[in-house]
Each structure stands twice: as structure tokens, then as C-alpha cells.
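User: Can you predict the 3D structure of ImmA/IrrE family metallo-endopeptidase? Sequence below.
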Amino acid sequence: MAAKLRIWVYTMDMNSMAIESNGQFSINVDRRLSPKEQWEDFLHELCHVLRHSGNQMAMPDRYVNWQEQDASAFQLYAALPLSMLRNLALPENKNELIAYLSEEFQVTYRLAKARIDQIERRVLQGSLDYEFQQYTQNQTNKKYDPSNWSEATRLIMNKLEFLKSRGVPAGGKANRLL
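Assistant: Sure. Here are the predicted C-alpha cells for ImmA/IrrE family metallo-endopeptidase:
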């Protein structure tokens, strides 16, 4: 992957980091880490190369924090792409699922768990959003249901319908007539 992207990757006994110099990119991966952790660090640093620019040493802390959060999110997607997960026969037990994905994708149990938790949150959020949408739609339908109108509302609505049938535009003259 790095070769296709023309990124030089090396390992040293120092924290993983992405470096840009004169338009050339390199990623150091901490060789003291396990192979799974090295892969995860590579993906994290790859995000910095692909999506971020600038020297974090000279950036405001809030911007650095945002870049780190973005790289951590990218890492989850890149390590366990949903499109690939859909093609697998996955165990139903969550702990077995996490262990399976950890081995299948060569990531740590911690990262596999974080990705599954993220997917579960997104599925739950989608369900909640759908339920809320249905609820608000039902509430809106109830509001405009004439059988729910008070007598005062019914009188006003009848006047508006009368004016509309006479070609009187809403606002202006119609307001004075009410």
C-alpha cells in the first residue's frame, strides 16, 4: 500500500510518526510494538499523510487534537472496512466476533472492539433517528388534522379557505380581513 502511494516506511525505536519533507512522505513505525500494533500505527499515520498537512509542533493544541481524533477514526475504518465485514460469516457472540475480527484483520482486540462498538452505536443512532422521524411526522400529521383543531382554529382556517377560494393572497389584505 505504501509503495503504491509513494510513501517510504521505516521502523525505529521511537514513536510512530508521519513526516513530510519537500513533498516526499515517510512514516516511521515504532518497531518496539507488536505486529498488530505496528499495523494500527501505520494506518493512523497514513491518515496524517493523506488528509492532514502542517507541522503539529507549530499548531494550536485544539487543531492537533482534532487531527489525532480524525486519524483515530480513519484507523478504525481502514483497519476494518464495513464493506469487507459484510462479506464474512460473523459469529453472533460479541466477544467471539471481536476475537475473530482481531485475527482475521490482524488488529488488536482493543481496536476490533472499538470498531464493533462504533458500528453498534451507528446502527442504534440510525434506529433512533428513524423512530424520531416517525414520531415527528405523526405529531405533524396530528397538528394539521382538522379533527384536532379547537373551535377558534377552525373559524380562522375556514376564513382562510374562504379568502383563498376568492383569490385573495395570503398576508397583506388577507390579514386585515381576518
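The mean pLDDT is 89. The chain is about 60% helix and 10% strand.
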